[in-house]
Design a protein that fits this description.
Blueprint lengths: L12 H11 L1 H9 L1 H9 L27 H8 L7
Helix pairs in contact: 1-2, 2-3
Protein name: NHLP leader peptide family natural product
InterPro entries: CN_Hdrase_a/SCN_Hdrase_g_sf (IPR036648), CN_Hdrtase_a/SCN_Hdrlase_g (IPR004232), TOMM_pelo (IPR022513)
GO molecular function: catalytic activity; transition metal ion binding
């Protein structure tokens, strides 16, 4: 199954990955130990080399909360300098 980051299906890529991890212990182990390689092997998904991917298994007695970058961090990426031209 070839997947892309812009995939527009009724079931999101994230949901497909979670469902596969629930149903396939080998995939789940590979996903936790080497996420990029697992996504390439099972979903034919190539992530950029500079992108870091962290996969953690949430336990019944845990709640994980991810804090995204602040909007000001994104704003810095949008500033165009004279050198950029």
């Amino acid at each position: 199954m070839k997947a892309t980051l812009e995939q527009s299906t009724t079931v999101s890529l994230r949901e497909q990955i979670i469902a596969k991890a629930w149903s396939d212990p080998a995939f789940k182990a590979a996903l936790v130990s080497n996420p990029k390689a697992a996504l390439k092997q099972y979903f034919e998904l190539d992530l950029p080399e500079e992108m870091k991917l962290i996969v953690a298994e949430e336990k019944k007695d845990q709640l994980m909360f991810v804090i995204p970058p602040s909007p000001s961090e994104y704003a810095q990426d949008l500033i165009v300098t004279e050198e950029a031209w």
